[in-house]
C-alpha cells in the first residue's frame, strides 16, 4: 500500500505544471488554457493520466503527461527518479 513517502504531487501555477517528489520539484509549461488539475486517474512509471480543467471547457478533460522526456531534457536518470514513486496525487498545498 502506498504512503506519503512514495507519493508524488501534481499541481499547476498558472500555465506551469508542477510535479513534486521528495526534495525534487519539476516545473514545465503546460497548455495555454490550463486552469487546474483535478484528479490523477492513472500513474504508470512516468506516464500520468489526469482529469484537467481548461478555460475553454466547462467539463473536465482527460490529459496525458509523459515525464520521461522532461527528465531527459533535465539530464536526470528517469528510472532512478521514477522507480520510488508509488502514486501521484493532485495537491495544491
Describe the structure.
The chain is mainly beta and 93 residues long. It has one domain. 13% of the residues lie in helices and 52% in strands. The protein has two helices and seven strands, in the order E-E-E-E-E-E-H-H-E. It has helices at 67-73, 78-82, and strands at 7-13, 16-21, 24-29, 34-44, 47-54, 61-66, 87-90. It has a four-stranded mixed β-sheet with strand order 3-2-1-7, with no helix packed on it. A three-stranded antiparallel β-sheet has the order 4-5-6. The longest helix is centred in the last third of the chain and has 7 residues, at 67-73. The two termini are 23 Å apart.
Strand order of the largest sheet: 3-2-1-7
Summed up, the helix count is 2
**Which residues form runs of ≥5 with pLDDT under 50?**
none
Rg, nearest Å: 13 Å
How many DSSP E strands?
Answer: 7
Total of domains: 1
Separation, N- and C-terminal Cα atoms: 23 Å
Record keyword descriptors for this entry.
single chain, 93 residues, mainly beta, four-stranded mixed beta sheet, 2 helices, globular
